[in-house]
């Protein structure tokens, strides 16, 4: 499933790196503790988080995530978007809670195909 | 102000890559408390290893180790260095710092144990998983520390598995 499908189905707002939305998403991870995400997420994951500061881009880039979804209407910092643009990591935002976003993506990936 | 700080941190980044098929190494300076640049050294090392044609699965392990080592120096030290060596069959990462050190190394390696303050935790760091992650992704792991002086950490990752 591509990032684009997830963006469309959940009505996410893409804040940068639109050109990367064709990328295949192979799994997902959710968490706000950076070391947890660092240690347990996988390459190709879509990462759902409430964190907005620029260190999330470093983590997503090092782990080769497909993209980051920031939840609960939180706005990514300006620095975060600049760095994401540079590193080529798509950042999407949603007004939904982390629970709802994860539930919807999980359902899409596992049952809606 | 912030831009110039980033620039000065970048200017500290030094590599001494030897263009040989057998051997590659680099050393990087890490400034304590500079959370803005967290991950910059790890990204640089990842890029170098990728150019060298090291397998993705190995690079992913190295990235976790270098990132956690980098964040530890930023969080708990005044300054430090991260050095890496690619040798036939293995990659070794060494992190050295001048900082508060670790009182109880056994305890510090337990997942969930952390001495991080609120300023560190607010950014999503300080979950007490850093050393546990490094250990998990290393084939060989060694850490020594002198409280109030600093910490030395060495991690080796086998390239061909074991």
Topology:
The complex is a heterodimer of chains A (113) and B (162).
Chain A: H1 3-10, E1 13-16, E2 27-30, H2 34-40, E3 45-49, H3 55-62, E4 67-70, H4 78-87, E5 91-93, H5 98-111
Parallel strand pairs in A: 2-3, 3-4, 4-5
Antiparallel strand pairs in A: 1-5
Helix pairs in contact in A: 3-4
Chain B: H1 2-12, E1 24-31, H2 40-51, H3 56-76, E2 77-87, E3 90-99, H4 105-108, H5 118-121, H6 130-137, E4 140-146, E5 150-158
Antiparallel strand pairs in B: 1-2, 2-3, 3-5, 4-5
Indicate the CATH topology of chain A. Udp-n-acetylmuramoylalanyl-d-glutamate--2,6- Diaminopimelate Ligase, Chain: A, domain 1
CATH class call of chain A? Alpha Beta
Strand order of the largest sheet of chain A: 1-5-4-3-2
Assign the CATH superfamily of chain A. Answer: HprK N-terminal domain-like
CA radius of gyration of chain B: 15 Å
Q: Number of helical runs of chain B?
A: 6
Portion of residues within helices of chain A: 40-55%
Number of domains of chain A: 1
Average predicted local confidence, pLDDT of chain B: 87
Oligomer: heterodimer
* DSSP strand tally of chain B: 5
Would you identify the regions of chain A where 5 or more consecutive residues have pLDDT less than 50? Answer: none
Task: Give the helix/strand class of chain B.
Answer: alpha+beta
Any guess at the CATH architecture of chain A? 3-Layer(aba) Sandwich
């Amino acid at each position: 499933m591509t990032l684009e499908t997830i963006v469309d189905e959940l009505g996410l707002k893409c804040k940068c790196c639109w050109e990367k939305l064709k990328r295949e998403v192979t799994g997902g991870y959710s968490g706000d503790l950076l070391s947890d995400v660092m240690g347990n997420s996988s390459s190709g994951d879509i990462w759902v988080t409430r964190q907005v500061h620029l260190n999330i881009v470093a983590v997503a880039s090092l782990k080769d995530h497909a993209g980051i979804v920031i939840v609960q209407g939180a706005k990514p910092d300006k620095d975060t978007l600049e760095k994401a643009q540079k590193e080529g990591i798509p950042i999407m935002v949603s007004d939904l809670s982390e629970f709802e976003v994860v539930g919807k993506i999980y359902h899409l990936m596992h049952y809606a195909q | 102000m912030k831009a110039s700080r980033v620039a000065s941190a970048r200017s500290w980044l030094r590599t001494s890559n030897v263009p040989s098929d057998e051997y590659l190494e680099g050393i990087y300076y890490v400034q304590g408390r500079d959370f803005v640049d967290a991950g910059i050294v790890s990204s640089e090392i990842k890029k170098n290893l990728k150019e060298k044609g090291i397998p993705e699965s190995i690079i992913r392990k190295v990235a976790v180790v270098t990132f956690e080592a980098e964040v530890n120096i930023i969080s708990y030290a005044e300054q430090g260095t991260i050095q890496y060596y690619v040798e036939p069959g293995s990659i070794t990462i060494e992190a050295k710092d001048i900082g508060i050190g670790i009182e109880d190394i056994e305890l510090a390696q337990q997942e969930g144990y952390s001495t991080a303050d609120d300023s560190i935790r607010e950014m999503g760091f300080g979950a007490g998983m850093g050393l546990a992650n490094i250990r998990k992704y290393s084939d060989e792991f060694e850490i020594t520390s002198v409280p109030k002086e600093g910490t030395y950490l060495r991690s080796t990752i086998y390239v061909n598995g074991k």
